[in-house]
Specification:
Low-confidence stretches of chain A: none
Number of strands of chain A: 12
Strand content of chain A: 35-45%
Number of helices of chain A: 5
Mean pLDDT of chain A: 87
Shape of chain A: globular
Helix content of chain A: 25-40%
Helix content of chain B: over 70%
Number of helices of chain B: 2
Distance between the termini of chain A: 76 Å
Mean pLDDT of chain B: 70
Number of domains of chain A: 1
Strand content of chain B: under 5%
Oligomer: heterodimer
Radius of gyration of chain B: 21 Å
Largest interface: A-B, 40 and 33 residues
C-alpha cells in the first residue's frame, strides 16, 4: 500500500516537472506571394497591384504561437506597414489566419477570436480532425527534425480540392500549430503550406511559466450564431453597392 | 453677338463636361464594385472558412481604396 502511494506521488511529481517545461513562444512569418499569382491566373487585373502590396506587407507581419501546458493561442504581433498603404494588414489577415485562435487540448476546444466594429467574438469552431496522410519525408527546421503530412482541403467555393502540407516535429510532442491547425498532428507544426499562404517558424523559445486564461462559456458563441451575424455584414455590402 | 456665342459655347462645354463626369463616376463605381467582388471571390476560392465578416472587410477595404484612387 505504502509503495503504491509512493509511486502515485512520484508519478504526480514527474507530471508536474513535465508540465513546468511546457511553455513555449514560437514566432512565425507569413508569405502571401501566391495571392498575387492567384489573381494573375484568374486575370483579376484590377486587384493585381493591391495583392502585390498585400504580399509585401505580409512579410513585415510577425505572428506568435504561445503555449502554456494544454492551451495555445495564435495571434499577431504588431506589423510594420509600408508607408502610404496603412490598412493593407486587413487584407493580410483576411487572406490568411483571419483572427486569433485559441486551442485547449484538454477539452479539445478550438476557439476563433475576432473583432468587428469594436465587438469581440469568441466562436466555438468544433474541432474537426482532418484526414492527414503522414509520410516518412523529413527536413530540419530550426534544428528540429520535422515530418511531412498532407491532406486534401475542400474550399468554400468548392472549385477543386487543394493539398495542404504541414511539417511537424515529434521533438515537441504537442498538437499545436498556426491558425486553425491546432489539435491536428502529434507534434508542433513548424511550417504550413496552404493554398495561398505559407507559415514558417522563425524562432522557438522555451519560456517561463505563464497562464492563458480560459474563456468563460457565456462569452463563447456557436459557429451558427457567428455565421448568421457575418452573413448580415456581407448582405449589407451587397445591398449598399 | 460675341457675348451670346461665348455663353452658348460655355453652356455646351459645361453640359458635355457633366455628361463625361457622370459617365466617369458610373464606370468607376461599377469597376470598383467588380474589383471588390473579385477580391471576395479570391477569399472564398482559397479559404476553408465561410466568414461573412472577413468577406465584408475585404469588400469594404478594396471598394473604398478603389474609389479613393
Amino acid at each position: 500500500m505504502k509503495r503504491k502511494r509512493f509511486f502515485i506521488i512520484l508519478l504526480l511529481l514527474c507530471l508536474r516537472i513535465y508540465s513546468q517545461e511546457s511553455f513555449y513562444e514560437i514566432e512565425y512569418t507569413i508569405n502571401l506571394d501566391k495571392l498575387y499569382e492567384s489573381a494573375k491566373k484568374k486575370r483579376d487585373n484590377g486587384n493585381l497591384q493591391l495583392f502585390d502590396i498585400t504580399a509585401k506587407t505580409a512579410k513585415s507581419i510577425s505572428l506568435v504561437l504561445l503555449i502554456s501546458d494544454n492551451i495555445s493561442i495564435f495571434k499577431e504581433r504588431k506589423g510594420i506597414m509600408i508607408d502610404g498603404h496603412e490598412g493593407v494588414e486587413t487584407l493580410v489577415r483576411a487572406y490568411s489566419y483571419e483572427g486569433g485562435w485559441m486551442y485547449d487540448d484538454f477539452s479539445k476546444k478550438l476557439i476563433f477570436i475576432n473583432s468587428y466594429q469594436g465587438k469581440n467574438y469568441f466562436v466555438d469552431k468544433k474541432l474537426q480532425i482532418r484526414n492527414w496522410k503522414l509520410t516518412n519525408e523529413t527536413k530540419t527546421i530550426l534544428g528540429y527534425k520535422c515530418n511531412k503530412a498532407t491532406y486534401i482541403r475542400t474550399d468554400v467555393s468548392n472549385k477543386g480540392n487543394n493539398e495542404v502540407t504541414a511539417w511537424y516535429t515529434n521533438d515537441i510532442k504537442m498538437p499545436f500549430g498556426p491558425a486553425n491547425y491546432a489539435g491536428q498532428l502529434p507534434g508542433i507544426i513548424l511550417e504550413l503550406d496552404e493554398l495561398i499562404v505559407v507559415y514558417k517558424a522563425t524562432s522557438i523559445k522555451k519560456i517561463g511559466k505563464f497562464k492563458i486564461e480560459r474563456l468563460k462559456e457565456k462569452d463563447i458563441i456557436t459557429e451558427k450564431q457567428y455565421k448568421k451575424e457575418g452573413d448580415k455584414v456581407m448582405e449589407f455590402y451587397k445591398k449598399s453597392n | 453677338m460675341k457675348k451670346l456665342f461665348l455663353a452658348v459655347v460655355t453652356v455646351v462645354a459645361f453640359s458635355n463636361f457633366s455628361v463625361v463626369a457622370d459617365e466617369k463616376v458610373n464606370v468607376s463605381f461599377s469597376s470598383c464594385e467588380d474589383q471588390a467582388f473579385d477580391a471576395v471571390e479570391t477569399y472564398y476560392d482559397n479559404s476553408s472558412e465561410d466568414n461573412g465578416f472577413t468577406a465584408g472587410l475585404i469588400f469594404e477595404y478594396v471598394y473604398n481604396r478603389c474609389m479613393n484612387e
